[in-house]
Amino acid sequence: MPNDKDLLGVNYATANYQLHRNLLFALAQRLGLLDCFRCNEIIVDIADLSIEHKEAWRSAIDPRVAFFDLENIAFSHVRCNCGAGSRPNRKYATEAGRKTAYSRRTKERWNRHRRDQRHNARSASGRLSASEADHEGSNPSLAAKA
Fold it and tell me: What pLDDT, in 10s, does the model give residues 51-63?
């Protein structure tokens, strides 16, 4: 017996997602809901369809309620929705987290820089130990600096 992928041409989860998306687009079209929330132009292609939260759910008093509130949902073009996102596109959730990571990275870079300077000074003055001299030849990053 053939499996779902052989029957559908894609795995079942992908096919199910496509079916839900096609159904959503067809129903929105029948109900006249395909005016983009952002630019008010008609969404004519299913690939352009995006679900939009009218008010940012992340900054709501109760984000879970705001996320699932159907009155807070509209449709928009993908390009309009992505361009208007209020979600911070940052690696760190808070400014304090960013500063901590920045200070840690800066300290690591400074320590590496100071270590390299000390090594280069000892190398130039001929004060390298035997193990450092052996290590220097096997470390491409140190050899490139020499």
Answer: 999 988 888 899 9
- In 7-103, the DSSP E strands lie at 49-53, 73-77
Q: Cβ distance 24 to 49 under 8 Å?
A: yes
What is the Cα–Cα distance from 74 to 45, expressed in whole angstroms? 16
Q: What is the CA radius of gyration of the chain?
A: 28
Whether 9 and 17 have beta carbons less than 8 Å apart is answered as no
User: Strand ranges (DSSP E) for 4-131?
Assistant: 49-53, 73-77
Does residue 24 surpass a pLDDT of 90? yes
- Confidence (pTM): 0.54
Give the separation between CA 134 and CA 146, rounded to whole angstroms. Answer: 14
Range of lowest pLDDT (82-96, 102-116, 122-136): 82-96
The better pLDDT of the pair 28, 5 is held by 28
- Taking the C-alpha atoms of residue 128 and residue 120, their distance in angstroms, rounded to an integer, is 9
Report the mean per-residue pLDDT for the chain: 80
Q: Report which of 29, 83, 98, 13 is spatially closest to residue 52, judged by C-alpha positions.
A: 83
